[in-house]
Automatic annotation (TrEMBL):
The UniProt record lists the keyword Nucleus: yes
Protein's name according to its UniProt entry: Thioredoxin domain-containing protein 9
Subunit structure and binding partners: Forms ternary complexes with the chaperonin TCP1 complex, spanning the cylindrical chaperonin cavity and contacting at least 2 subunits.
Function comment: Significantly diminishes the chaperonin TCP1 complex ATPase activity, thus negatively impacts protein folding, including that of actin or tubulin.
GO CC aspect terms: centrosome; cytoplasm; midbody; nucleus
Record InterPro entries: Thioredoxin-like_sf, Thioredoxin_domain
Subcellular location(s) per record: Cytoplasm, Cytoskeleton, Microtubule organizing center, Centrosome; Midbody; Nucleus
Alphabetized UniProt keyword annotations: Cytoplasm, Cytoskeleton, Nucleus, Phosphoprotein
Native organism taxonomy: Eukaryota, Metazoa, Chordata, Craniata, Vertebrata
Residue ranges occupied by any Thioredoxin domain in the UniProt entry: 53-181
Primary location group: cytoplasm
Length: 227
């Protein structure tokens, strides 16, 4: 027992020492930063302040430019022609191809509304698949809902149904945000290696079988269970 007690004490001392060393390093780093600021003359400080103000001004101007192009809100566009115009003027675009009768499109709408406000750097749009047969054919959209993820005018990636989102109707906004981050279509600050749905409790993921819906003679797979 004596030996066990001794090893516990040694371990405790080692840990305390580690903590002290870490604290010392942090303090030394802070001291160095403070000293650097103290040694700066007024001209240097003024220069630093100006640089920061410039950066803030630039960020504000960029935000205003995005807002003037229709970023910051989730909008419906009326036609295929509008789609081409919208993607031409913005670097990052997320477009939801939806249909009124598909319940899962409403779930997608709810999350996209939140993300459009949060990620002003990206344009969030929705387009009725039934009103855009040419575009659906060109982009090979067969399942509704589908998100087309567009960068620099080119469709780079798709989110088809909810398969990439934990395969459940109850996916979180964070999960969709992570998936958009994986496609580099938004500025994502989380860890891409750690999908949010992995840390959640597993929801029931029983999916109803896909039913076929015809739109103007075209067959669409609906990712929905309502008729």
């Amino acid at each position: 027992k004596m030996a066990a007690d001794t090893s516990v004490e040694i371990l405790q001392k080692v840990l305390e020492n580690e903590i002290l060393q870490t604290t010392k390093v942090v303090e030394e780093h802070l001291d160095a930063e403070i000293q650097k600021l103290d040694q700066m003359d007024e001209d240097e400080l003024e220069c630093l302040k100006q640089r920061r103000l410039e950066a803030l001004k630039k960020a504000q101007q960029q935000k205003q430019e995005w807002l003037s192009k229709g970023h910051g809100e989730y909008r419906e566009i009326p036609s295929e022609r509008d789609f081409f115009q919208e993607v031409k003027e913005s670097k990052n675009v997320v477009c939801h191809f939806y249909r009124d009768t598909t319940f899962r499109c409403q779930i997608m709408d709810k999350h996209l509304t939140v993300l459009a406000k949060k990620h002003v750097e990206t344009k969030f749009l929705k387009l009725n698949a039934e009103k855009s047969p040419f575009l659906c054919e060109r982009l090979r959209i067969k399942v509704i809902p589908t998100l087309a993820l567009v960068k620099d005018g080119k469709t780079q990636d798709y989110i088809v149904g909810f398969t990439d989102l934990g395969n459940t109707d109850d996916f979180t906004t964070e999960t969709l945000e992570w998936r958009l981050g994986c496609a580099d279509v938004i500025n994502y600050s989380g860890n891409l290696m750690d999908p949010p749905f992995q840390s959640q409790k597993k929801f029931g993921t029983s999916f109803t079988k896909l039913d076929k819906k015809t739109i103007r003679g075209k067959k669409y797979d609906s990712d929905s269970d309502d008729d």
